[in-house]
Write a sequence for this structure.
């Protein structure tokens, strides 16, 4: 299933084990990717504002699941900085990543409303 959003077509699929063709990321995979890329954009902006090279900076996301519910209970985002990264900015770059809008929406989630409407011709 594809989503059309702000002029972009975002392709999604499900893994084969769930009946999909595995031709594109699953919607939940895009959700997790949005956490990592959002943090990465804030890190990138932080570094660019200070003329800090970003080529060797990497963002890694790891999840931990609750064994009973199989729901993700923790998301760990690791910012790997090169040895030449100014050490005085190490904590500040973490704070910058924590400003991620996606993360903020998880901390204060919006109300979710789902409705079904019949299309009338």
């Amino acid at each position: 299933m594809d989503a059309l959003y702000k002029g972009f077509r975002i392709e999604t699929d499900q893994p084969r084990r769930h009946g999909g063709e595995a031709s594109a990321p699953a919607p939940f995979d895009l959700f997790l990717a949005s956490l990592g890329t959002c943090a990465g954009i804030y890190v990138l902006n932080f570094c660019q504002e200070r003329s800090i090279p970003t080529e060797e900076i990497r963002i890694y996301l790891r999840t931990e699941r609750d064994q009973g519910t199989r729901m993700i209970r923790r998301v760990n985002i690791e910012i790997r900085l090169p040895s030449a990264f100014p050490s005085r900015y190490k904590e500040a770059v973490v704070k910058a990543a924590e400003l991620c809008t996606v993360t903020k929406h998880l901390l204060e989630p919006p109300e979710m409303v789902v409705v079904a409407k019949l299309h009338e011709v």
Observations:
- The CA atoms of residues 43 and 97 lie 6 Å apart.
